């Protein structure tokens, strides 16, 4: 199956009016990505707490963007998320990821979501280069 970017990604697609339209910055020198975003109550699980699935989605996207500093086309093979603290809705989030190891077609990435410097969720991700 051929994959193509049609600007409708739920997380970052500018053409997806129902998506997050998150804007990730990429740092090719440091193999990193970064994004700042707040999620409203429509993305909550428990009252006033962002749903864990949304956090996993953002960690996944950050991991892909970090890998795109090296390889333009890649997909997630594994995502292991550790939730450390609840994430309140309507709170500015700092999302970042960094490629920590490269093996032929597999990248190992560490990603995190922080609020005011405190990590609330983190992930170890294996990303496969297409």
Automatic annotation (TrEMBL):
Pfam families: 4HBT (PF03061). Gene3D superfamilies: Hotdog Thioesterase. Transmembrane segments: none annotated. SUPFAM superfamilies: Thioesterase/thiol ester dehydrase-isomerase. InterPro entries: HotDog_dom_sf, PTE-AB_protein, Thioestr_dom. Residues 49-113 form the Thioesterase domain. GO terms for molecular function: thiolester hydrolase activity. It comes from the Bacteria. This is Thioesterase superfamily. It comes from Desulfuromonas acetoxidans (strain DSM 684 / 11070). The lineage of its organism: Bacteria, Pseudomonadati, Thermodesulfobacteriota, Desulfuromonadia, Desulfuromonadales.
